[in-house]
Amino acid sequence: MKSHIFSAIRLTLVLLALCCIVYPAFIWGIAYFTPSHGHGDMVEVNGKVVGYALIGQSFTADRYFNGRPSAVGYNAAGSGGSNKGPTNQEYLASVRAAIDTFLIKNPAIKRTDVPVELVTASGSGLDPDISPQAAYVQVPRIAKVRGISEDKLKALIAQNIQGRLLGVFGPVRVNVLQLNIALDHTK
After folding, report:
1. What's the pTM value of the predicted model, to 2 decimals?
2. Number of domains observed in the structure of the chain
3. pLDDT digits 0-9 by tens, 73-110
4. Is the Cβ–Cβ distance between 140 and 150 less than 8 Å?
């Protein structure tokens, strides 16, 4: 009996050391040798940090491209989805409200053409990217508000399209923060 207790205590101490010291130190070491030294991919404009490339932000003004809604209010300290299924009435009501709001701001778009990612939150609630189609559908609104030609905005979107990881994995996407920064620098 005593031998089992001492074995269990030794195993617990070894696992505590591995999980609480060795593994975190290993991950920190890997992060330290990344270009940002583990501090995230900060986006700067005129020497001021305006956000992070991999964390979504709320853009609700009509003069900007809107990103995905967030179930966590874009709070990176606690990412997560809404955990409401597709038959949940509260969830369906929030999606309908998001579609209605989108259609009010974008009257040239038909209800069937509203991209799903502009009215539903991602699993993390912090998705910084949208599809190129979700960006293109917002062009008429932004062109009207900013007085910029639609062709110029479409070219700006095309310049900011990021390809698939290693050319194979994941979707083609547009980072909303970087697109809006480029939009602010467009004359």
Report:
1. 0.79
2. 2
3. 888 777 777 778 888 899 899 899 999 999 999 998 89
4. yes
Whether residue 15 is found in the same domain as residue 107 = no
Contact present, 128 and 176 (Cβ < 8 Å): yes
Given its phi and psi angles, is residue 47 left (phi above 0), alpha (psi -120 to 50 degrees) or beta?
Answer: left
CA-to-CA separations, 151 to 139, 155, 157, in angstroms, rounded: 9, 6, 10
pLDDT band at 187 (very low <50, low <70, confident <90, very high): confident
Q: Where are the beta strands (DSSP E) in 20-172?
A: 42-45, 48-52, 129-130, 161-162
For 106, list phi and psi in degrees, rounded to 5.
-130, 70
How far apart, in whole angstroms, are the C-alpha atoms of residue 176 and residue 163?
15
Share of the chain above pLDDT 90, in %: 54
- Whole domain around residue 68: which residue ranges? 41-184
DSSP of 56-86: -----STTS------TTTT-GGG-------T
